[in-house]
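Hi support team,

I'm opening this ticket because the web form for multi-chain structure prediction keeps timing out on my end. I have pasted the exact lines I submitted so you can reproduce it. The total is 628 residues across two entries, so I didn't expect it to be a heavy job. Is there a limit I'm missing, or should I split the entries? Thanks in advance, R.K.
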Amino acid sequence: MATQHSRSAARLMMAPAVILLLGWMLVPLTMTLYFSFKKFLPLRGDSLGNGLEWVGLENYSRFVGSSSFWPSVQATLIIVGSVLVITVVLGTLLALLLDQPMWGQGIVRILVITPFFVMPTVSGLVWKNMFMDPINGILAHLFKFFGAQPLEWLSQASMQSIIMIVSWQWLPFATLILLTAIQSLDSEQLEASEMDGAPVLKRFWHIILPHMSRAITVVILIQTIFLLSIFAEIFVTTAGAFGTKTLTYLIFQRVLESQNVGLGSAGGVYAIILANIVAIFLMRIVGKNLDR
Amino acid sequence: MGQIVLNKVQKKFGDVEVIPPLDLTIADGEFAVFVGPSGCGKSTLLRLIAGLEDVTSGSIQIDGKEASDAPPAKRGLAMVFQSYALYPHMSVRKNIAFPLRMAKMDKAEIDKRVTSAASVLNLTDYLDRRPGQLSGGQRQRVAIGRAIVREPSAFLFDEPLSNLDAALRVGMRLEISELHKRLDTTMVYVTHDQVEAMTMADKIVVLQAGVIEQVGSPLELYHTPRNVFVAGFIGSPKMNLIEGALAEQHNAKTIGIRPEHVQVATTQSDGALQGTVGVAEHLGSDTFIHIHGVAGCDPMTVRAAGDVTVRHGDTVYLTPDATQIHRFDNDGIRIP
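Hello R.K., no limit was hit. The queue was backed up. Here is the completed structure from your submission:
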């Protein structure tokens, strides 16, 4: 089959797809790099046609020098970290609960997954208007019912609110992966540990948790990739105000609100670097856990 | 220190009665084997003793103490599982030490016991490996090691050799028997393999559909099976069970004759049964000949000397040893 001839024919036929995919990735990346070294303010008349002024590393130093840079990095890491902790811990507990035999198991499991199907923009708006609204939100009514002053969630507890919304979205994913991990545990191992005199909590700690460690690393890895770039949830709720401006959001503001493409592109490059640093750390941990 | 008494023990799963009320006594230091075809309830019975299943009614006494409601860990028993159930993320040392750590034993004492168990089981060189890096036989030994460090009053084995290859199984069988002689502790062993039961047991308990068919020493069961089921189950190759005219000559519904109690000849003699050779299995020491054409039993298996040369299609004449015929009545019960 695979003669010299047919192989080169195959390469030729695959070429359009490969070139398209490569271009899809490389063109934006090169343009980002290119713009990050240029002064590009579309509202001041800069355009590709007129030629852009080379400014060297000025965009990079301005982006880092801005007073919102470090707070935005901090906000990003806080959101990613908190959501990871919440989803992994609650996901483990929920998975343990869902693993118990119960009536209506199938329906309950499907209901648990549903938040994952809701689009980020929609879930952000639902939380903002139906739950967290200080006048008509369900939480406000709950607070009033107990005689408390309703909290203005998005301004008074903005960070916590965003973390809550994003966790709600990602909890089903974590639960699902961790549930399959628990289900794959050999029941004889649990019985053996029971005979060995391990009470429930120790069985969890010594048998179930180590068995789940691989699934937990996978959850952390995948979620980190997606959480580093959350945007819609912030855009429709706080719009970056009250300390919820993440790195992604800062770049968005630089490009679209300040109309400074060069500065935003430099921020994009920083975001790539940050994502890679995180990825290297994660791959180290994952590598250790996946090798076993 | 290890007597197990079952008194009217019954187990139901929902409405299905898996084990009808059953009495059994396993004496201290005894090697008891539960044997029976798959699905006969032997594993369930073992799990009831272990405490992994709750009895529906009746009581289990271990060392004279009521244990039916005690949790598994408090019964002083150790169990070896079919899949070994080793903890994959722990080293062999940690696996063996696990029950002792759970018992909050002194560190020095744990080390001492693990070391001695490892030397008994030839595991000293493997203590720092993970179970995944061991062979089947070694894993089996780790599982046994995890059981013996606890110094339990009885060991429970749930088909421990069924995942091993044939050669290894024979070796492990000997090792477990030797372990029993050395520790002199009660062992309860579940298997579907009657060879394992015959070679290891002090006492065999033959089960069918949750009912005990017969309890006795291997040779008792071999020489005086209580009914047709036990007669057919114990012994390899199987006892020949003959029905019809031949059985009626002996005033029985069914008669049984073991392959080794039938003479084979190639020349006709008085009262011999005629048959045709189907397959002859030459084992060297013996030859098992499967013979077709004997009324009421097809094929009939016969054990002959190793140097017998019969071929497929040969006509042979069979003379059962009249003193070795087992007779069974209409209900399949032995006629003395």
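A quick check on our side: The radius of gyration of chain A is 24 Å. Let us know if the file doesn't open in your viewer.
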